[in-house]
Amino acid sequence: MRQSAPKMKNTLPRIVTTKDLKSRSYITFYYLGKRIREYNGDSINIDLKPNTAQTVKERNDLLKRLEYEFTKALENGYYPITTISTIVKTPVEESFITAKEYLEQALFKKLKSNINRKYKINLKTIHTQFTNFLTEKELIGKIEDITLNRVEDFLSQFSSSGTYYMNKRRDLGVLFSTINKQLKQKVYVIQDSEKMKSSAKLHKVYEEEQVKPILSYLKENHHNLYICCLITYATFLRPHHEVRSLRMSHVKNDCTEIHLSGTENKGKRIRIVYIPDYLRKELLPIIDGLTLNESLFTRTIEIPNEYYFSTAWTRQFKEMYMRGLIQKNQTIYSFRHTAAVQVYNKTKDLHILQQLLGHSDMIVTLKYLRGLAAIKNDDLKAVMPTLDL
C-alpha cells in the first residue's frame, strides 16, 4: 500500500519579496498541512497592506510588521479569525492589545518616521529600560492599567539631575503620545508625572574681542572647523546638521546664497541665506573644482559623520582654553548665538531675527534671546503699555 505523505507541520511566517514594486510581495507559512500566502492583514483583522506602498523600503517595513502580526496571531491561536470556532471571545478581548504590544508598535512607528539617529537611539533605550522595569503581568495587561505611581517609580531612577530626568520623561512621553493616537480613552500618566527643574545648557555668547582671535586660531589649526564656525556666524545655519551637510549644490548665485530644502533644515521650510563678502572670500577657493554632489568639507560625495565637528571642537577647545582665548560653555553654537545678539542689538527687530535664525515661531525667537540674556528687564519695561489715571 502506498503511504500518504506526512502533513507538513505548522511553520512560522517568512517574507517573500523582490525589489520590483510591480511584483506583489507576501508572507508564507504552513498551517494545518496547507501552504498559506498572505498579502495583507485582512484575515487577522489588521489594516496592513504592504503592496500599496510607494517605495521598496516602505513595503519592506510593512512586510516586517505583517510577519510580526501573523507570528503573534499563530502563537496565540487566533489565526484565521474567521474560522476559529473553538475559542469564544468577547468583542473587547478580540481587540485587546497588551501594553507590551502597544509599546513595541509605538517604537516601531517612531523609528520609521523622519527623526534623527540620536533621537531613535534614545527612544530604543527608553523602550528597553521601561519594558525591563515593568512586571510580566503589567506587560501582558492593558496599557491603561499602568499607574502613575509605577511611572514615577521608573523615572525616579534617573533623578541624579533635572536635565537627565526630564529627558527620560520626554522620551517615554513620546511613546505614550504615539499610543494615545490609537486609544479612545487616553492615558495621561506621563503628563501627570512629577517634573524636575532642569538647568538650561547655555551656549555662552562671545565677547566682541574674542571672535577674531578664535577664528584666527581655528583657521591655522583646523581649517574645516574654521569654515564651519564662520558659516555658523555669518549665516545662522546650525553647525552639526545644516552646515555639516553642505554640498556644492547648496551654494547658489555665484556663491552669494545658500539654499536648503525643507528636508534639510530644522524649520522644515525652504531656507535661503545670504553669504556676506567676508565668508564668500573664504568659500571661493573651497568650492573651486567641486562637482554638485561633493561636500564642502570632504570634497567627496560623502559628508562628515555626525560627530565630526563636535569631536574636532573638543580637541581644539582644550588648547584655546589654555591660551585664554575661550571660556567654559562657549561652543560652536556660540557663534550663532553671538551673531543673533548682535543683530538684535542693532535692529531691536524680532521679526528680522526670526527670519535669520529660521525659527518657525516668534515665541521661540523671544525665548532664545531671553535665554541668552539679550533681552533685559529694562528693555521690557521700556515697551510696557502706559496709562494716566
What report would you give on this structure?
The chain is mainly alpha-helical and 389 residues long. The protein folds into three domains: 14-95, no CATH class; 100-192; 208-380, hpI Integrase, Chain A (Orthogonal Bundle), CATH 1.10.443. The protein has 17 helices and six strands. It has a three-stranded antiparallel sheet with strand order 1-2-3, with helices on one face. A hairpin with a 2-residue loop joins β2 and β3. α3 (99-112) runs antiparallel to α4. The longest helix has 21 residues, at 56-76. The radius of gyration is 28 Å and the shape is globular. The termini are far apart. The relative contact order is 0.07. Residues 82-95 have low confidence and may be disordered.
Give me the secondary-structure category. Answer: mainly alpha
CATH architecture descriptor text of the largest domain: Orthogonal Bundle
* CATH homologous superfamily descriptor of the largest domain: Intergrase catalytic core
Q: Biggest β-sheet, characterized?
A: 3 strands, antiparallel
Note the run of SSEs as H and E: EEEHHHHHHHHHHHEEEHHHHHH
Q: How big a fraction of the residues is strand?
A: 5-15%
Number of strands: 6
Q: List the strand order in the largest sheet.
A: 1-2-3
Low-confidence stretches: 82-95
* CATH top level assignment of the largest domain: Mainly Alpha
Approximate helicity band: 40-55%
CATH topology of the largest domain: hpI Integrase, Chain A
Rounded to the nearest angstrom, the radius of gyration is 28 Å
- Mean pLDDT over all positions: 84
Total helical elements: 17
Large-scale geometry: globular
Work out the count of structural domains.
3
Q: Distance between the terminal alpha carbons, to the nearest Å?
A: 114 Å
